[in-house]
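Per your request, structure below.
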């Protein structure tokens, strides 16, 4: 059995993508496998900081366009992983700066329907849901909603759809030297699926009791290997790098390579 610890920290024998979620490791000397045997790879442990942005310029959802008394304003959200309270904080600070009213626009959840209420504390305030890179779509107000607000008095409007703040459902970990997968019976190189189970910017610690054994290693000599982290749709994750402009958060995995007969006895 061969055990390999791989991380996205900088070292001379590897290259790391600017987003921090793709690592190519070079092995010198190469790892030699017996060509007469079949080998599989298992993920034994993963440590991943839960920091993939749900609001960013790359996702086209980082602005809020609103109007007060006929004057238009725009709120820009820095790339990050936001909960509803974080959005409210950003909006409150912006409206206080722009209109001297920190309560001008507030968002409230409806847990029963997973929708969002927008509360306006004045009658002459509106939000343009069709605004460029609008945040309103993930809050349940698609572009087709148009403009909301301009009520006759202070009041609220409920979203027409469910909010979708938690877009990251699974972290898929793949290796370019494996084939076969458990994902919907499709042929892929995914070696594990990790479900985020911690709060924002905490570390997901994944240690399966029964590591998956499906992927087959398709080469006898391993000169290099690339590990990639994606979301459930196959989109490469941004590990807090702000689209590659700053150092990403760390991740590490522990894998083993064993013959099929050896693994089946464990």
């Amino acid at each position: 059995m061969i055990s390999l610890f791989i991380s996205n920290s900088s070292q001379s024998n590897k290259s790391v993508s600017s987003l921090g979620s793709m690592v190519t490791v070079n092995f010198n000397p190469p790892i030699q496998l017996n060509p007469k045997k079949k080998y599989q790879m298992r993920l034994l442990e993963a440590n991943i900081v839960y920091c993939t942005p749900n609001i960013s310029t790359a996702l086209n959802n980082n602005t809020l366009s609103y109007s007060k008394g006929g004057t238009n304003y725009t709120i820009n959200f820095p790339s990050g992983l936001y909960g509803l309270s974080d959005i409210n904080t950003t909006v409150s600070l912006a409206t206080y700066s722009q209109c001297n009213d920190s309560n001008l626009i507030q968002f409230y959840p409806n847990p029963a329907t997973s929708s969002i209420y927008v509360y306006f504390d004045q009658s002459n305030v509106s939000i343009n849901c069709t605004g460029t890179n609008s945040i309103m779509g993930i809050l349940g107000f698609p572009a087709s909603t148009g403009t909301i607000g301009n009520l006759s008095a202070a009041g609220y409007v409920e979203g027409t759809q469910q909010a979708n703040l938690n877009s990251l459902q699974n972290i898929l970990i793949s290796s370019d030297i494996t084939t076969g997968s458990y994902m919907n019976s499709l042929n892929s190189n995914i070696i594990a699926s990790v479900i985020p189970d911690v709060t924002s910017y905490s570390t997901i610690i994944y240690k399966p009791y029964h590591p998956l054994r499906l992927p087959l290693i398709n080469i006898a000599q391993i000169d290099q290997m690339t590990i990639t982290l994606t979301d459930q749709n196959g989109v490469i994750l941004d590990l807090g790098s702000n689209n590659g402009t700053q150092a990403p958060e760390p991740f590490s995995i522990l894998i083993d390579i064993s013959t099929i007969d050896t693994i089946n006895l464990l």
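The chain has two domains: 2-52+168-264, 63-158.

Regards,
D.
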